[in-house]
Amino acid sequence: MSRRAVILAGGRGTRLKPYTVVLPKPLMPVGEYPILEIVVRQLVADGFDHLTFAVNHQADIIMAFFGDGSKWGTRIDYSLEDRPLSTMGPLRLIKDLPEHFLIMNGDVLTDMSYATLYNDHTSHKHIFTISAHERTQVTEYGVLETDDRGVLVGFKEKPAARYLVSMGVYVAHRSIVDYVPRDTFFGFDHLMAALIDRRVPVSVRPYAGWWLDIGRPDDYAEAVEVFEKERRLFLREPK
């Protein structure tokens, strides 16, 4: 069965400066591979035979590296933005989207099966599926709890809160494009607000395995370390 993926690779990687002054973020090395090449290898192993890169910043470098995708046994084409459109705006530029397609950020390191997420999405009627991961946020300070008179009634030393966060990996029905305005900066947050406002059901699928977004220096360093130790998890064989 043919599977299509749209990979968002147009960001400037401002949180990773100075690393991204020369290289676009999707080409940042993790081990001996750029992070986006690891993503491509994983998608090909999971049966995705048509990849579209939504590119903008330093697009020529990305296009020169990946070409038509034949090196990896897949088809790669490009959707070039003439100005930044955020994460969901680029979907409006792609005219040949299939009924169902995967969307993902090009800077994600995970051992998740994209094929499993895709198949799960196509088995239900929701038009959008989000892969999610639990993260813990530790407050750096002691937290004071007071009553309405300003009297201390409780204290927590560096409390931790757990959140279910988006992994930057989604599967969508092509009707999702109807919710994306034309030629407008429109991100994942805008799309979620629109779907919630219109009461459109969205599926959330928690994933407990490895996941890191390399957008921050600390996460990038951790991704490099994890990949070197667990590379067989990430460079899986084609199915």
Secondary-structure map with pairings?
Elements: E1 4-8, E2 29-30, E3 33-34, H1 35-45, E4 50-55, H2 59-66, E5 75-80, E6 100-105, E7 108-110, H3 114-122, E8 128-138, E9 142-146, E10 152-157, E11 160-173, H4 188-197, E12 203-206, E13 211-213, H5 217-234
Parallel strand pairs: 1-4, 1-6, 4-5, 8-12
Antiparallel strand pairs: 2-3, 6-11, 7-13, 8-11, 9-10
Structure write-up:
- By secondary structure, the protein is of the alpha/beta class.
- Helix content is 23%, strand content 31%.
- It contains 5 helices and 13 strands.
- Strands 5-4-1-6-11-8-12 form a 7-stranded mixed sheet, with helices on one face. A two-stranded antiparallel ribbon has the order 2-3. Strands 7-13 form a two-stranded antiparallel sheet.
- The two termini are 12 Å apart.
At a glance:
The chain has 239 residues and is an alpha/beta fold. The chain is built from five helices and 13 strands. The protein has helices at 35-45, 59-66, 114-122, 188-197, 217-234; strands at residues 4-8, 29-30, 33-34, 50-55, 75-80, 100-105, 108-110, 128-138, 142-146, 152-157, 160-173, 203-206, 211-213.
